[in-house]
Design goal:
The protein is mainly α. Helix content is 45%, strand content 7%. It is built from five helices and two strands, in the order ββααααα. Strands 1-2 form a two-stranded antiparallel sheet. It is globular, with a radius of gyration of 18 Å.
Length: 148
């Protein structure tokens, strides 16, 4: 979860840069890309705590699955579910709720460097949002009768 950890004292490691590890910032950037299509007057102004928590536990899940260097999947670990990841997400939220505004600034600036890094194939979601008079692309994800 940390950008860096000072392990000079093995008994008392000191984390630096909470929620600023590159893997977390990169994952969190997908959220920033998604909300970039929302008009400024409609966007939430509070920090996106839940999105950061989900990005963090998603990275933790990925690291656990690849901890041996090869994909390790148990019957219960193949789904990202509330049953398996609800408690870890709540625990991460405890830390996130204590973040100071200057730390949020660092997190958002760090994640912004990853926005667009994976070169999305289209900006269809943005055009659906705009064309639908503010309706989310998720609300327009259906086949009409004529699409066969």
């Amino acid at each position: 979860m940390w950008y860096d950890v000072d392990e000079s004292d093995a008994q008392n490691p000191i984390g630096k840069g909470p929620f600023q590890h590159k893997a977390i910032l990169d994952t969190f950037a997908f959220y920033l890309e998604s909300v970039s299509a929302i008009p400024e007057g409609v966007k939430k102004t509070s920090p996106p705590s839940a999105a950061l928590a989900l990005a963090t536990v998603a990275v933790e899940r990925a690291w656990k699955q690849w901890a041996t260097g090869e994909l390790v999947q148990t019957a219960f670990d193949d789904k990202f579910s509330a049953t398996l990841w609800g408690l870890p997400t709540q625990e991460v939220m405890v830390s996130i709720d204590k973040l100071k505004p200057h730390t949020w600034t660092k997190i958002l600036e760090g994640a912004a460097r990853f926005v667009g890094a994976h070169k999305p194939k289209s900006v269809r979601a943005q055009s659906l949002y705009t064309a639908g008079g503010g309706t989310s692309g998720r609300a327009m994800c259906y086949e009409s009768e004529s699409d066969g």
